[in-house]
Amino acid sequence: MDAVRVALLREVLAGTEWPGATRRFAGALRSSVLPHGGGLLLVGTAEYEPWHLAAHLVDEAAWSGTPELTPTLVRHGARPGDPAHLAVGLGRIEAARRGETLLVVAPGAAGAPLLERVYDARRAGATVLALDSGDRELHAMAHEALAVPARPGLDAGLDLDTVQHLVSAATGENSLPVPRGRRRFTDRLSRLADRLTAPPPARW
C-alpha cells in the first residue's frame, strides 16, 4: 500500500462534497439498474474508453452479489473479429430500450455521433447517466449527471479517473444493507488507493 497516496486521498476528500456526490450518483446508477434488470451499457467517447471503470464495476458486482451491475462495454472501434465482450459497437446504444441504463463517461466533448445515439436511447425509454467534465449537451439528456472539472492529477484535486473509482466503490457499497462488521464507504479508501496505484487491468 502507498501510505502517502492513501493520506493524500483522505486529505483531498476531507470536508468536500465528493463522498456524498459520488454516493448519490452511485445510488442513482444502482436504482436504475436493479429494479429492472434490463442491463447496464457503459460507453466512452471516440478518444476515451472507460476500461478501468468497466473492470471495477465487474469487481463490485461480484463483491456485492448484484450481477445486474456488470456492464456491457460499448466501443466506438469494435470489430467483428474482437472477443465477444469487446465486440459490442455503438449499434447497441441504438437498440437500447426501456428498462436499460446507459452510463456515458466523457472526459471531453461527447461529440455529435454519440450524442445522437444517447438522445435516441433516451427517447426509447433507457435511463441515461453521465459522468463527465461538464458537457452541457450531454447533461441536458441525462437523467442524472456528475461533472468533474478537468484537472491534471490527484495532487491538484480529484480527476475523472479517481471519481470513477469512487463511483464504482460506492455502487457496490450501496447495493446491500450494511451488516455488522462490514467496511463503510470511507473505510474503503485504502483499498481504493491501492487500485489507483495499480497498473490498468487487462482488457478482460
Please, what is the average pLDDT? 80
Query: Which outline best applies?
Result: globular
Largest sheet: 5 strands, parallel
Number of strands: 5
Q: Can you tell me the CATH architecture?
A: 3-Layer(aba) Sandwich
Count of DSSP-assigned helices: 8
β-strand amount: 5-15%
Radius of gyration: 16 Å
**Poorly predicted regions:** 152-156, 178-183
The CATH superfamily title: Glucose-6-phosphate isomerase like protein, domain 1
- CATH secondary-structure class: Alpha Beta
Name the helicity range: 40-55%
- Number of discrete domains: 1
H and E string: HHEHEHEHEHEHH
- Provide the spatial order of strands within the biggest beta sheet: 2-1-3-4-5
Alpha-carbon distance between the two ends: 24 Å
Tell me the CATH topology. Rossmann fold
Class by SSE composition: alpha/beta
